[in-house]
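Folds abound. A case:
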Amino acid sequence: MGRARTADPIQQFRFRIEIEGISELGFTRMSGLEDEIEVAEYREGGFDTTHKLPGLETTGVVTLERGATRDLQLYEWYRDSLCRNNTQDFRKTVTIIETDCAGNEIRRHVLYEAWASKFTRPEFDATSSEVAIDTIEIQYEQSETIAN
């Protein structure tokens, strides 16, 4: 008897990324999606051990990579982050969507109050045949995972 498809692990190469207000971007790699709760240790008199309590939640830095194109929307978003006095809000909602082999949505990770903190241009090498890659690092304040 075959294994049920619903029990199969999610494949890491099936994903889409949507950035609020930026259209038609395809990414080859995404990493750094992590949240962590700091541990606050408390020592009480008379005990030989410490109590460990949940502290503040911190978020990671998401890194997105894609083949370099003429489209400068990601770079412009990064530049918008430098103009904090501008009336335009540089913070966006970023959604990472995991899909199954048929392209159906399995779950989504929503990053709130996200902004671009670093933009890395491609490395050029005349002896290589690899694709030029743009990399952008995104800071975010909160995340939520939603199952479909």
Q: What stands out?
A: DSSP finds one helix and nine strands in the chain. The first strand starts at residue 15 and ends at 19. The two ends are 27 Å apart (CA to CA).
